[in-house]
Design brief:
Layout lengths: L7 E5 L2 H12 L2 E6 L2 E5 L5 E6 L17 E4 L3 H10 L3 E2 L4 E3 L2 E7 L5 E6 L6
Length: about 120
Amino acid sequence: MFKGVEHTALASPNPRRLADWYVNNLEFHINFEYAGNYFVKAPDGTMLEIIPSEGEPLKPAMKTPGIRHIAIAVDDFDTAHAHIREKGVKFLGEPYETQGNRLVFFEDGDGNFLHLIQREKPLP
């Protein structure tokens, strides 16, 4: 009956600008738009919906309650890291390895937390 997560929504003061950020930096594409809302789709089919925000943004920290980051899977960590570094993204630290996985945290165009991850072994 339940198939999985179809998309996750991000609220942005400028949805088109943020959608373009995902297109220009992470190889997503805009696959649907309506009334100022944009769906961006990753090469693997996962989607984000970017909707118009209302009110003042909150500045979350890495472990405050709520959704804290979006993990972007890569098959070549070094190439992906170099690609987004060349694009001028804001990194939150240096790449590191844990349990055989390589990670680096960064921010999207609105300051949402993301990280690249290359897993040594897929999760079960």
